[in-house]
Each structure stands twice: as structure tokens, then as C-alpha cells.
Amino acid sequence: MKITVNSADFIRAIDHKKAVTKAGVKLGVGAILLEIGARADELVPFDTGALSRSQTTKVTTTKETVTGVIGYGGPAAPYALVQHEDSTLSHPPKAKGGSPVTPGQGRGMKYLEYPTKQIRPRVNKIINHAIKSVGG
With contact defined as beta carbons under 8 Å apart, do 134 and 23 qualify? Predict the structure, then answer.
């Protein structure tokens, strides 16, 4: 799962120093990845634990963007992808209605997509809070 934020949008919106704002955006993207990762850890299929332990996150910056990437699998990424996408695989029962998996209701597919959709409405708020915390 990949999240890309154009830091220039935030710089224009709050009219502050570019370096401070970009540091805040980077901090905010990191916080978003941490929350997605914590929720995904509750949902990722668990047999031997290898997939669960393979979560990785990375935040990179360019002149205009901050990109956060979270994933599972490492060398077993093809297996992680199958577990994420294949609705025919057998996992513990899912909650009825709405999402494919609800925290506390079992594990299964869409273990990254579902937490990402949950956090999406709060992304700007999280990033703005992070910008303010670094002095923006």
C-alpha cells in the first residue's frame, strides 16, 4: 500500500517555511503508516506468524512529495499478495456486512486496504497536526 502526499500543497495552504512543513509532512506520513500497520497487524492472516512478522514501512521524500509505503511479505511478497486479494481462502469468520474484516472479528484478506480506508478521512488532520508539532 502506498501513500503519496504533495508537500507543496501543505506549504501553500499554511504559508510557512518549506523545510519545517516538509518535516511535518514526513512525520505525519510516518504516523499514518504506524496506525495502518497497527490495525493491519490485527487483521493479517496468522498461521506460522511469518507473514505477520514481515511488515515493513518506508518513508521517502523528493523535492515535492513525501511517500510512505507499507507492506508485508519481504521475499514472500507473492504469498502476501495472494493472502490479501484471494477471497476464496479460508480464514476465521468475518464480521457481517461492510468490510471484509473488522478488528477483533478475525483475520483475512484486505488486511492493508481496510485500515487504509479507515484512516483516509483523517489524513489531512494527521498531517496538519504533525506540521504544527514541528513548529509549522
Answer: yes
Please give the angle made by the CA atoms of 24, 7 and 113, to the nearest 5 degrees. 85
The reported pTM is 0.77
Residue 105 has pLDDT above 70, yes or no: no
Measured in whole angstroms, how far is the alpha carbon of residue 123 from the centre of its chain? 10
Q: Residues with Cβ < 8 Å from 113, sequence gap 6 or more?
A: 1, 84
C-alpha distances in Å from residue 112, one per residue of 3, 52, 131, 132, 136: 12, 12, 25, 28, 30
Alpha-carbon dihedral 116, 118, 123, 124, rounded to 10 degrees: 150
Q: Are 89 and 81 in contact (CB under 8 A)?
A: no
Report whether 94 contacts 103 (CB < 8 A).
no
CB 99 within 8 A of CB 110: yes
